[in-house]
Amino acid sequence: MFGRLQRPEADVIEVIIGPRASFAGDLRSDTSIRIDGVIDGGRLETPVNVILTETARVQCDIYAKTVSIRGIFRGVIRADRVELLKGSQVFGALHVNSFYMDDGVLLRAEVDIQGATQEELSQLPRPDVSASIPVISPTRPPTP
Asked: Quick one: DSSP state of residue 125?
């Protein structure tokens, strides 16, 4: 039997492009992907994490939950969270809900932080517009 009996944990890294490997094309996985080598064109897609290490040289589009970058990236990322770590170089466009950037990062990209959806915003409590806001006058120190 060559099939899997049980699916791996989603955050387990089962796909690794090693530092001496290169890849071009579309790569889909239901587990995390780590890139140490070169990707030239195509698309990476996973419902979990993509990790680009300091030796990674990646030019493609990435669709993932979280993308962490230490290497060089060119392309478009659509993710829930992007982390640009010290030493990374990023060129292109980032479409994210959450964004983190260390010192020592070169970023030349459009960053679109989407945040809450319109439905989530409509569920936030609204202020009572009929309530008056008290205004307190500042006190002045006595003149000498």
From this structure: P
